Amino acid sequence: MTENQVNGYLLQFSNWHRGKLFVFMIVIDQVISIPLVKLFEFLVSDDIFFIESSSNDTLLFMFLLYIVFAPVAETIICQLVILEGLLYFFYKFKLKNGILFSITISGLVFGFGHSYNWYYVFVTFFIGLLYSLYYLVAKKHKNMNPFWTVVIVHSMSNLFSFIIYDL
């Protein structure tokens, strides 16, 4: 796949209504993550995605950590620093395949940032790829802020998981 093809795919979403695009991103996020999680739970164990928290952690603390802090911090690291930094580097030195390489590295960092076990790394690697794609789609959209788009989609995903696994 060439850079022009990737840019062409990203531009296809630039005319979508912002609300429709948010819903689409949230649905795709769940359509990819839930089957991957369920597949590993079926194949290995039903508790491999359980992350044990300290007995001192309150529900409010866990909510703020998962729904507010983690999405903001991970978007800063994976999209603003890594994705944007690599894209700038590839653009500045006129190197090829910058978009694909940058998305992949961003996804790897996101995945390894969730290194509770290798299953979790594998699943979150794909989610990290999605978040980088969402960032680039929102960047091409005239009515979306790429940073806040990824933070909101990530927060919604974590909220769904929080409701299912932590309440």
Describe the structure.
The protein is 76% helix and 0% strand. It has helices at residues 3-11, 18-43, 59-92, 98-112, 118-140, 146-165. Helix 2 crosses helix 6 (146-165) and helix 5 runs antiparallel to helix 6.
Percent helix range: over 70%
| Separation, N- and C-terminal Cα atoms | 43 Å
Q: What structural class do you assign from the helix and strand content?
A: mainly alpha
The major beta sheet can be summarized as: none
Taken as a percent bin, the fraction of beta residues is under 5%
How many strand segments?
0
| Integer average pLDDT | 90
- As for the number of domains, it is 1
Weakly predicted, low-confidence segments: none
Report the C-alpha radius of gyration, rounded.
16 Å
Helical stretch tally: 6
Oligomeric nature of the chains: single chain
SSE map:
Elements: H1 3-11, H2 18-43, H3 59-92, H4 98-112, H5 118-140, H6 146-165
Helix pairs in contact: 2-5, 2-6, 3-4, 3-5, 3-6, 4-5, 5-6
In short:
The protein is mainly alpha-helical and 167 residues long.
Features:
mainly alpha; 6 helices; 0% strand; 167 residues
